[in-house]
Amino acid sequence: MEETVFFNLGNALAAKRDPKELIREAQIVKDQRQPLGKLVIVEDESSGEHILFELASREEKSEQTKEFKVKQVID
Question: What is the DSSP letter of 74?
């Protein structure tokens, strides 16, 4: 089951149309940034774009945040 989360787009680490390419990007980010918490790949349903965030940067619903569907959590 998919979960809905809210993020500020300014906190995105990367964005790609191809989710497989974004998974590779997540591995690069994880290797370069230590210590790093869980990463999450979400989908912007309006554009079909997949976006990479740190899970800890999720926020409450507000005017500055946007709703996304979680596609994958990377430990």
Answer: E
- What is the reported pTM? 0.87
Q: Identify the DSSP state of 46.
A: T
Give the span between the Cα atoms of 20 and 41, in whole angstroms.
Answer: 10
Angle (CA) 34 36 68, round 5°: 145
CB–CB of 13/27 below 8 Å? Answer: no
The DSSP annotation for 1-36 comes to ---EEEE-GGG-SEEES-HHHHHHHHHHHHHHSSS-
13-35 pLDDT, tens per residue?
A: 999 999 899 999 888 888 887 77
First CA to last CA distance, the chain: 19
